UniProtKB/TrEMBL annotation:
It is found in: Secreted, Extracellular space, Extracellular matrix. One of its GO terms (cellular component) is interstitial matrix. Binds dermatan sulfate and chondroitin sulfate. Residues 148-157 have a biased composition (Polar residues). The keyword Isomerase does not apply. This is Vitrin. The keyword Glycoprotein applies. Keywords: Disulfide bond, Extracellular matrix, Glycoprotein, Neurogenesis, Repeat, Secreted, Signal. It holds the Pfam family VWA. Residues 286-471, 488-657 form the VWFA domain. PROSITE patterns: LCCL, VWFA. It comes from Panthera pardus (Leopard). One of its GO terms (biological process) is extracellular matrix organization. Its main location: secreted.
Length: 671
């Protein structure tokens, strides 16, 4: 019996040893088969910006050819995340134009980025930015795992996002919750045309935290903003999330459904009965708000900006008989959110403002001002002509492009530019500003009336009343186009022998009296003068004198020439030497003064002048030929030609000439 047991024990031990050996052998085979996956370096294109990649640290491979200037880089050593990753790598010296691997690490945003030229790449300066990155050689650090595939920020189209948000309304109720349908009607503006109905589940008090899954999400909000929306609504209830106190004044409970374009059906009849204001007649202006939608402003400041716009819209009392307001948003490029005629009352305008989404990009305010001048104030966009044009430009920090030339063109086009600068550059940050004193160069006048400097975004609401008071003070809107500040006026003066020295001085006094009536500066009315006999002489051009006193002194210094009378040749000379240098947005006025019939033909030169848009006034004295004056004058001749029997009576026609100039101006579209 004992021998049998021993034999069985020996068999068990033998089997155990066999199994153990087999397992070890099997594990060795598995070990041989399982290999650590090889790290694959993701490749990117030259135009990929660091801000589009969500990963905080990563290794990538850049292609060849990223030294091209079209791949913008901002900063030196530390780069704004708006920069091309590969372009920054070349600028820093980590790569050359042949490409290669680099290690990228995200760091905090800087208060400013200074441009420089390095390794064949010119980087640009930039104001503060939300995020930065640094570049080093593409050698992975030990113990650090780098992604083989990069995670990019969402690039879904607005239509796709809207569709996703709409689906949230169709979400079925969570099990074990009781739901009661609430009928909502979608409306556009203040009308209920084409209303659509949807039922929303109403969670019972016992649903607890599951109620959060039933919240409708407002249409049009981007994915990054949904969490902000969630923290600022449905604040009542035991399990409702609490809003950040700093956000409460911007997003109040109960406003979200209206933001999304929905109002309870029972409220429609009440809204329809509310009388709509025709607007404040004491503030009849056409107003463009040019708002900063750049990435550096951030979402919270952008919401503060929208709240400011809504407050201004309410304070202005928008209406067809009062102020009209449109909005242009700028980042890299400007875009009109809506024009002057889109919303004709403050209520609709405030609703539209809430729906504006941030564009992102740089802060190209100069490009936005050019856009407003060329495109916004047109008849098709609601410009009334009879109302002053006003543009209020809001800038966070400072622009990333130059505003001086764009603003000059705007002023000359009759646009009153106001600038609101918020959290401007500190002494240490001024080195990053692209154009020093940009606000001073941009505004309509540098008298302080057109500039508002706000120390903090959280103080912006305090400027609402001050701004409204200024833009409505139409008597002080000095850049509005009028008949007296928007022309290039060329005097063509007969200096022939028949005039004589004494009468010539009388003619010059007439020219001075007319000039006195105009507002003269480099951006307002400009004056030039040509004297002619058989020959022609440029006495002074449009760019020579910029003040009224300088113009009057220049007129006094004109010397009498004496000679024959070649009026046709003088008109051609004035077109070439004066009006060829006129600004495209100026009205061109030629005022010709002669005392006799021309020795040459005036018909063809006069036709050329009319064809080029030069409005010609012909003033004849003594022996001037009436038929010739009518040929020279712009049609209708009765409004543009005058005859005076004696030189001493010239002064009597100053009011009549000015009146006709202004009557004609007021009958034409302004911009």
């Amino acid at each position: 019996m004992g021998i049998v047991v021993l034999t069985m024990k020996a068999s068990v031990i033998e089997m155990f040893l066999v199994l153990l050996a087999t397992g070890i052998h099997s594990n060795k085979d598995v070990t041989k088969k399982i290999k650590r996956p090889k790290f694959t370096v993701p490749q990117i294109n030259c135009d990929v910006k660091a801000g589009k990649i969500i990963n905080p640290e990563f290794v990538v491979k850049c292609p060849a050819g990223c030294q091209d200037p079209k791949y913008h880089v901002y900063g030196t050593d530390i780069y704004a995340s708006y920069s091309s990753v590969c372009g920054a790598a070349i600028h820093s010296g980590v790569l050359d134009n042949s490409g290669g691997k680099i290690l990228v690490r995200k760091v905090a945003g800087q208060s400013g980025y200074k441009g420089s030229y390095s390794n064949g790449v010119q980087s640009l300066s930039l104001p503060r930015w939300r995020e930065s990155f640094i570049v080093s050689e593409g050698k992975p650090q030990k113990g650090v795992t780098y992604p083989s595939a990069l995670t990019y920020s969402s690039s879904k189209s607005p239509a796709a996002k809207t569709d996703e948000a709409t689906k949230a309304y169709q979400k079925p109720p969570v099990p074990e919750t009781t739901a009661q349908p609430v009928t909502l009607t979608q409306v556009t503006g203040a009308t209920a045309t084409g209303a659509a109905h949807a039922s929303l589940p109403k969670p019972s008090p016992s649903a607890g935290s599951t109620s959060s899954s039933l919240r409708p999400q407002p249409v049009g909000l981007r994915s990054g903003e949904l969490d902000l929306w969630a923290t600022s609504t449905y604040t009542s209830g035991q399990n409702s999330p609490r809003a950040d106190p700093g956000e409460m004044d911007l997003w109040k409970p109960g406003s979200v459904l209206l933001d999304a374009g929905f109002v309870p059906k029972e409220e429609l009849s009440t809204q329809a009965l509310e009388p709509l204001s025709q607007g404040d007649p004491n503030c009849k202006i056409d107003l463009a708000f040019v708002i900063d939608g750049s990435s550096s402003i951030g979402k919270r400041r952008f919401r503060i900006q929208k709240q400011f716009l809504a407050d201004v819209a309410q304070a202005l009392d928008i209406g067809p008989a009062g102020p009209l307001m449109g909005i242009v948003q700028y980042g890299d490029n400007p875009s009109a959110q809506f024009n002057l005629r889109t919303h004709m009352n403050s209520r609709d305008l405030r609703t539209a403002i809430e729906k504006i989404t941030q564009r992102g990009g740089l802060s190209n305010a100069g490009r936005a001002i050019s856009f407003v001048t060329k495109n916004f104030f047109s008849k098709a966009n609601g410009n009334r002509g009879s109302a002053p044009n006003v543009a209020v430009v809001i800038v966070d920090g400072w622009p990333t492009d130059k505003v001086e030339e764009a603003s000059r063109f705007a002023r000359e086009s009759g646009i009153n530019i106001f600038f609101i600068t918020i959290e401007g550059a500190t002494e240490n940050e001024k080195q990053y500003v692209v154009e020093p004193n940009f606000s001073h160069k941009a505004v309509c006048r540098t008298n302080g009336f057109y500039s508002l400097n706000v120390q903090s975004w959280f103080s912006l609401h305090k400027t609402v009343q001050a701004l409204v008071k200024r833009v409505c003070d139409t008597d002080r809107l000095a850049c509005s186009k009028t008949c007296l500040n928007s022309a290039d006026i060329g005097f063509v003066i007969d200096g022939s022998s028949s005039v004589g020295t004494g009468n010539f001085r009388t003619v010059l006094q007439f020219v001075a009296n007319l000039s006195k009536e105009f507002e003269i500066s480099d951006i307002d009315t400009r004056i030039g003068a040509v004297q002619y006999t058989y020959e022609q002489r440029l006495e002074f051009g449009f760019d020579d004198y910029n003040t009224k006193s300088d113009i009057l002194n220049a007129i006094k210094r004109v010397g009498y020439w004496s000679g024959g009378t070649s009026t046709g040749a003088a008109i051609n000379y004035a077109l070439e030497q004066l009006f060829k240098k006129s600004k495209p947005n100026k009205r061109k006025l030629m005022i010709l003064i002669t005392d006799g019939r021309s020795y040459d033909d005036v018909r063809i030169p006069a036709m050329v002048a009319h064809h080029k848009g030069v409005i010609t006034y012909a003033i004849g004295v003594a022996w001037a030929a009436q038929d010739e004056l009518e040929v020279i004058a712009t049609h209708p001749a009765k409004d543009h030609s005058f005859f005076v029997d004696e030189f001493d009576n010239l002064y009597k026609f100053v009011p009549k000439v000015i009146q006709n100039i202004c009557t004609e101006f007021n009958s034409q579209p302004r911009n």
